[in-house]
Design goal:
- The protein is about 15% helix and about 35% strand.
- By secondary structure, the chain is mainly beta.
- It has one domain: Electron Transport, Fmn-binding Protein, Chain A (Pnp Oxidase, Chain A, Roll).
- The strands form 3 sheets. A 7-stranded antiparallel β-sheet has the order 2-1-5-8-9-4-3. The protein has a two-stranded antiparallel ribbon with strand order 6-7.
- The radius of gyration is 17 Å and the shape is globular.
- The structure holds flavin mononucleotide.
- Flavin mononucleotide binds next to strand 2.
Length: about 180
């Protein structure tokens, strides 16, 4: 075993897929990229890490709503681009050819080009840690999306794309809730 710098530890903890978070501040739609997320419970609770240095933060705090839009690898490049500029001076939907669709429950838009869209209510913001706690209230999937591979940030501007699937359902059976 060799020692690794402490700041590299997170790379080896499953980071979840890179996601897009959409917001509507009452005037404009916006979208940002997030790779630091966490599943909190089976009944669609999630956490994401962000803070006041991003334009999206104000809309998240004010409206207490967002959509977690999950891109497949076919729009990985656009997803990274959306995380490399700010909604304070850029219409990212227009600039990166993302299509906002009306959601059913929240005012933040779904993204047509994303494989999955989860409408969320903000349940809490833990200021000390910059953690938003989200409750999913509606989920959409586009099964016609040809690319169903999610992608993951693995540090230094590099990403992995989902590949081979392992099925250990029999081992985990007693631990899985019905229907999962
Ligand atoms: C791959 C990728 C992952 C990112 N992950 C996060 C994250 O987990 N938390 C965060 O606050 N910002 C993250 N960012 C940065 C924001 O997406 C970026 O600051 C964005 O410009 C914010 O947009 P806004 O100012 O319109 O809200 C990430 C950017 C990229 C490209």
């Amino acid at each position: 075993m060799q020692k690794l710098p402490l700041e590299k530890a997170f790379l080896y903890v499953e980071p979840g897929p890179v996601v897009l978070i959409t917001t509507f501040d009452g005037k404009k739609n916006n979208v940002m990229t997030i790779s630091w997320t966490m599943v909190k419970d089976f009944d669609a609770q999630f956490c994401l890490l962000t803070g006041p240095w991003n334009h999206s933060y104000q809309a998240l705090v004010k409206t207490k709503e967002c959509v977690m839009a999950i891109p497949a690898a076919d729009i990985a490049r656009k997803t990274v681009q959306a995380g490399s500029c700010s909604g304070s001076d850029t219409d990212k939907f227009k600039k990166f050819g993302l299509t906002p669709l009306k959601a059913e429950i929240v005012r933040a838009p779904l993204i047509k080009e994303c494989f999955v869209n989860i409408e969320c209510k903000v349940e809490d913001y833990v200021k000390k840690h910059g953690i938003f706690v989200l409750q999913g209230v509606n989920v959409w999937i586009n099964n016609k999306n040809k690319d169903k591979r999610l992608f993951h940030a693995v540090g230094n501007g590099t990403f992995t794309v989902d590949g081979k699937k392992l099925n250990y359902r029999k081992i985990m059976q007693s631990k899985l809730p019905a229907g999962i």
